[in-house]
Amino acid sequence: MIESKTALVPVERIQKLVLLIRGQKVMLDADLAALYGVTTGRLNEQVKRNLERFPLDFMFQLTDEESVVLRSQFAISNRGRGGRRYHPYVFTEHGVAMLSSVLNSPRAIQVNIEIMRTFARLREMLASHRVLAQKLAKLENKYDAQFKVVFDAIKQLMAPPSKPARRIGFGGDEVPMGKKGPKQKLVKE
After folding, report:
1. Which residues 6+ apart lie within 8 Å of 80 measured at CB?
2. What is the pLDDT of residues 71-95, one digit of tens each?
3. Residue 29 class from Cβ within 10 Å (0-12 exposed, 13-18 middle, 19+ buried)?
4. What angle (nearest 5°) sits at the alpha carbon of residue 168, between those of residues 166 and 171?
5. Cα angle vertex 111, ends 95, 53, to 5°?
6. Above 80 in pLDDT, residue 162?
7. Contact 121, 128 (CB under 8 A)
8. 42, 147 in Cβ contact below 8 A?
9. What domains are there in the chain, each with its CATH number?
10. How much of the chain, in percent, has pLDDT values that exceed 90?
11. What are phi and psi of 12, to 5 degrees?
């Protein structure tokens, strides 16, 4: 994978904008518009003019519930306070690729290349995590008998304490001892 040392948009910034909604990695229309250097309205206008290029697996509009969750997580302004008048659109990786054909500017093309690289890097990271988890499971199964003591010790350390913690202070039925408490008699046996 060839990357330029002076990327138009840092990969880390793009990675932070990728969300997981409905089990898909997506990007918000407003975030994409900011990356492309256009207004959200302009981006959505171009998309609506070319709707045949954006099937549901490329782009979809968020539901009421999804918008509320998104608003609470990212402090997006409410509708009545000058915020969005409609629910945001989100674009999957394929939808982002299609955006470069409807936003035909040099910046859009360069930003799109960086976004595609970011999606590819995210796929690679996810695949490497799966492979690592599979290798660990195989090792555990293979050496389970030899390292049973070690695995048992680790499991004990990870388990919650078996006895309840001792309560500090007085219980409801106990009478405190001291200057104001009842005197005890010394009993000899």
Report:
1. none
2. 777 655 555 555 677 889 999 988 8
3. buried
4. 100
5. 25
6. no
7. no
8. no
9. 11-123 (3.10.260)
10. 13
11. -60, -40
- Cα 109 to Cα 90: distance, rounded to the nearest angstrom: 19
What string of DSSP letters covers 114-152? HHHHHHHHHHHHHHHHHHHHHHHHHHHHHTTTTTHHHHH
Tokens (6 digits) for 79? 């509708």
The CA distance from 99 to 134, in Å, is: 37
> Which of 17, 16, 12, 13 shows the shortest CA–CA distance to 30?
17
Contact 115, 35 (CB under 8 A): yes
Is residue 33 within a helix (H) or strand (E), and if so which, with residue range?
helix 29-36
Query: Would you state the structure tokens that stand for residue 78, as one six-digit string?
Result: 């409410």
Q: Per-residue b/e over 82-109, b at no fewer than 16 CB within 10 Å?
A: eeeeebbbbbbbebbebbbebbeeeebe
Token reading at 22: 């409905």
